Amino acid sequence: MDKIIIEGGNTRLQGEVTIEGAKNAVLPLLAATILPVEGKTVLKNVPILSDVFTMNHVVRGLNIAVDFDEALNQVTVDATGAILDTAPYEYVSQMRASIVVLGPILARNGHAKVSMPGGCTIGSRPIDLHLKGLEAMGASIHQEGGDISATAEKLKGAHFYMDFPSVGATQNLMMAATLAEGTTVLENAAREPEIVDLANLLNKMGARVSGAGTETLTIRGVAELHGAEHNVVQDRIEAGTFMVAAAMTSGNVLIKDAVWEHNRPLISKLREMGVDVREEEAGIRVKSDVSKLKPVTVKTLPHPGFPTDMQAQFTALMAVVKGESTMIETVFENRFQHLEEMRRMGLHSEILRDTAMIHGGQRLQGAQVMSTDLRASAALILTGLVAQGQTKVGQLSHLDRGYYQFHEKLAQLGADIRRESED
Ligand code: EPZ
Hints:
- The protein is of the alpha+beta class.
- It folds into two domains: 2-20 and 234-421, Enolpyruvate transferase domain (UDP-n-acetylglucosamine1-carboxyvinyl-transferase, Chain, Alpha-beta prism); 23-231, Enolpyruvate transferase domain (UDP-n-acetylglucosamine1-carboxyvinyl-transferase, Chain, Alpha-beta prism).
- The chain has helices at 23-32, 50-60, 89-92, 102-109, 128-136, 167-177, 193-204, 236-248, 264-273, 311-320, 337-343, 374-386, 397-402, 406-412; strands at residues 2-8, 14-17, 41-44, 65-69, 74-78, 111-115, 140-144, 147-151, 159-161, 183-187, 208-210, 216-220, 229-231, 252-256, 276-280, 283-287, 297-299, 323-328, 348-352, 355-360, 368-370, 389-394, 417-421.
- The protein has a four-stranded mixed sheet with strand order 21-22-1-23, with helices on one face.
- The longest helix has 13 residues, at 236-248.
- The mean pLDDT is 96.
- The protein binds ligand EPZ.
């Protein structure tokens, strides 16, 4: 088991950092490569992450050729042959995001079987909206032996109102609707940049998706789709993670090619605290002096609200800013576990249901800590940068799902950080 070891206390991150393609974009994009019956699909700017390897295995398990050229960050997919109906349990069970292959397989084959994703540490992660939307399009859904089985001779366009703007459900239903008979309207749809990226690829494949990025998506069904070429959008959460890292270490960092539009809520909160965030030709520069920053209140919301995937990292910033900050997590029901670990480093905080009160500005001490999920891992490593002494972060399999060369990039910016194998 690897550990990341940080000698913290006087880190000031300086320099520039490059950002990878977005994990939360490339996973649904890979699911979309199931749809074309002619031509190959080439995805560029693909990040080298364990979740990408897992999704590649899921798609390969459908009798689809998937080639990942890591040197080029490029995946080429040929789905022109007959594809299987059942996604491989061994890989689907590793990553709940695999559920977004359900819609594409069903739309293409008329039948699909995908294992029911479990919950995870941050919440129960239901998929009721995915299933209700497919039923609205005429699919019959039933569960058998832990699998979801969906059947529809031909999906029919439907008008579906989503109780919650679920990212995964919006992606699954948008992809299914591309091959349905007639027009589908998804109301109260998710508006994240990753939804827009998926709609862009689908339209390059010959689909007719409009309204991506707004709360109403309209998809006019077509007979079939063809392969396309597409650059994966930059990872706004990795970019945001480095913005927070610069802010909490009184640093001066240029996040190269970062997209201002994709991080407006985060940038506005950083500015409210007194962090200097400005757009430059080459990207977004973040400068700060922690001693001058003010505490804030943040509430996570579906896009364009403050992203829940930046919540843990932002609490690490709140921990070093003198005064009482408040974080309200409205999207997931159990996403404050990193605060329990930070307590071991001297952070005082109270958690009451969806609200964490953070008493920032305490002297933090390095400690041995465990990460419980992907973003918690990043938050604990960032906290280690500012805590006095040595911090060891374990359970790095979570980190490797969503960050490429995270500690190398931090070391490049001046952090005293290394990764060691335990054995
Ligand atoms: C995606 O998960 C992301 N994962 C998550 O990122 C992200 O936190 C989340 O969107 C919200 O932005 C990927 O894109 C691979 P949701 P997803 O469906 O699609 C409820 C990370 O750290 N819900 O929008 O699963 C659900 O309980 C990960 O990169 C239903 O009630 O998110 C949750 O409270 C973590 N019924 C809320 O919606 C449903 O059918 C958000 O879930 C579906 C969801």
